[in-house]
Amino acid sequence: MIDALIIGGGAAGLSCALVLGSAQNKAFAKDKSIAIITHQKTSHLQTALFNNVLGLAPGTTGESILDNGIAQLTALYPHVEQIDHEKVSDISKSENGFTVTTNKSTYTAKIVVVAVGYTNLININGLEPFIEPHPRAAAEKDRIWLKNTDHLIETNLYVAGTLAGWRSQFAIASGSGAHVATDILTLWNNGKHAKVHDKVL
Ligand SMILES: Cc1cc2nc3c(=O)[nH]c(=O)nc-3n(C[C@H](O)[C@H](O)[C@H](O)COP(=O)(O)OP(=O)(O)OC[C@H]3O[C@@H](n4cnc5c(N)ncnc54)[C@H](O)[C@@H]3O)c2cc1C
């Protein structure tokens, strides 16, 4: 049983994984198992070029962010399990959480974060009841969101990034993933607000 399973290795998913991973020394998080399904083939980052993101050198490619994000997670937070080359096809409720089925395997998780982007080509069984037209995208683009309140779809099921209803900007999607991570950390900390800051000594 995984404690928190993130689905999607794009802006929101990787940001969520990095913040969750960075809590490794907090007493309330250190025994938690965290995993991310790092599918990146359909990320909007694949073709993006960034000149307008604070902290990113102008000309940074989305492709490099995808590669460097995985490398950063591997180097700094190796306890976050990375599940590569798998695509989720089904999410269903199980006794103590959720069963997540991919093209290769099945996982059980107490908390699931769906961060697969806002395309209407989403084909994950089990999410149909939550799919609605995206509230902050041009209607002719047929984008979708998963109806949620502050990223929470239902107990222990979160959505992050553009699929959460945010406009498509890198900083917003990343911030959404980070936000969900701190909500999960807060949950693990028995409701006491949690965040993770490193400091120059
Ligand atoms: C051409 C282009 C240029 C852009 N330029 C800018 C810019 O200049 N400035 C800016 O701020 N923003 C820009 N953006 C927007 C930015 O890239 C997006 O806002 C951001 O990538 C959205 O993040 P996300 O995590 O919601 O989705 P994504 O980054 O698309 O990530 C979704 C992830 O889910 C994975 N996934 C999908 N289905 C499944 C499944 N069934 N199972 C498992 N994983 C799955 C995908 O492979 C992907 O990795 C641009 C986008 C594009 C397309």
From TrEMBL:
Annotated ranges, domain FAD/NAD(P)-binding: 3-150
Alphabetized Gene3D superfamilies for the sequence: FAD/NAD(P)-binding domain (3.50.50.60)
Protein name: NAD(P)-binding domain-containing protein
